[in-house]
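Listing 4. Sequential folding, example run.
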Amino acid sequence: MKITFYGHACLGIEVSGKYIIVDPFITGNPKATHIDINSLKADYILLTHAHQDHTLDVEAIASRTGAVVVSNYEIASHYGAKGLNYHPMNHGGSWNFDFGKVKYVIALHTSSFPDGSYGGQPGGFVIEGEHKNIYIAGDTALTMDMKLIPMRTKLDLAILPIGDNFTMDVDDAIIASDFVDCDKILGYHFDTFGYIEINHTEAKKKFFDAGKDLMLLEIGESIAL
């Protein structure tokens, strides 16, 4: 499994020969101008919620690639009505896709489309594929529901927001990593805007002092599990 950071909360995942894009917000991110969305491969697009900084490039990528949009019922149906391929889910539900098993789990945030219309309830994803398991938290506060995840799935990586203001901060993300029983963390949802800028050195030290590994990738950088 290969995971690429495309800035903000956007990820690329290569697993079992399939390409997944999570929360595509690239063309609106001034820090990601070197990423060409027309070069990205996508068989699936996973969306945690409807906010523009997670959905801006959905239609451009999905219409070009034919990717299946996977999200809660309201978001998936929204894109289905536009003629895109889609697969609706809801909290607690899972589905065996051709790249692995996906479960849609609870996140504590808000969710609306740029025009203010309802975007269902926000969520995150637990993905099991190629004998590796990852948790993509989405935009969320720290929540006790995270403790449910390791009851079903032993994680190899937790991808957690750390930018504060709109989501958890670094300190809450450390607690979240305890809740999900995973000491290998990929941080995201930081630095894109002034509200969520962080001190990288301080963040890494806090995780290190807690006996955990926080990775902060450059935009376009990848890791392999």
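-- end of first protein; second protein begins --
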Amino acid sequence: MIPNNQVFEPDQAPAFEKRVFRDINPLSGSRKLRILGMPNAAMRQIHQRLIKYLRIQKIKLPHATCYKLGDGPRKNVEPHRKNRFFYLVDIHNAYGSVQLEKLVQVLLLFDAEYLMNKQRTSETLEKYCFFPNKKPAGLVVGAPASPILFNLYAGALLDQRLSAFCRQWHIVYTRYLDDLTFSSRRPIGREKRKLIRKIIAEAGLSLSHHKAKVSDLKKTPIVVTGIGIAHGGRLFLPRHFLRRLRGLIHADLKKPRVDPAVIRGMMGVFWSIRPVKFNASEQKLVDLYLKWQKTRL
């Protein structure tokens, strides 16, 4: 997985620098403080090799919609467009909930070669992917390989059981990293929601209960992983998303300091669900973005 003969100069030893970061989710608009582990060049190189190795395995996670290259919020919403009733839940402290020994066992499921190097695999993950001197340790938030490792972890311990349960009750299930979406043409009743929460708890994960939502699209549209969906399957972008995107572009035109990948990523969501014909507000956004693009050429 990671060469054990890798040598680094003393000033290049793989390491994370802890930083407190005020995170604003560009899709939902929510704000929270996060403790991030910022990798130095040596640590980033290790994670890039790990990601490359895991990608080569071509592991299939049919319910994970933020796993493969090119995945996005639209992919997460699309399977639910024909349904009316929704149950949305969010895993609390997702990366921090990952247990080292369970993650090792998950990797064994996907690659038998790990079986011959179980101890080394455990030591490597603990050294390069988990927060040191932290109980419980958990995957490093901000580490490049954390999303793919969490997806594998949740895919094995959570998705398989939830998928079997949902098939039984004709419920559509998708997972966008730590956001879980359930929908059906019939109401997802209290007992079914209770069983869903039980499966999640048995996987060693907990929910952010204050974020859970039970919705009927015939009464009101909802926002799923940043994309609005109305009864009949119509998709739209929430106003706060468009306001924030316009604000970022305006700010960057005045003084370039916004990561271009953030603006391009948000515009990617916009392009993915754009209507046949823009309204006045949407056309202004498109014109503003085209103006911004010229400054980034």
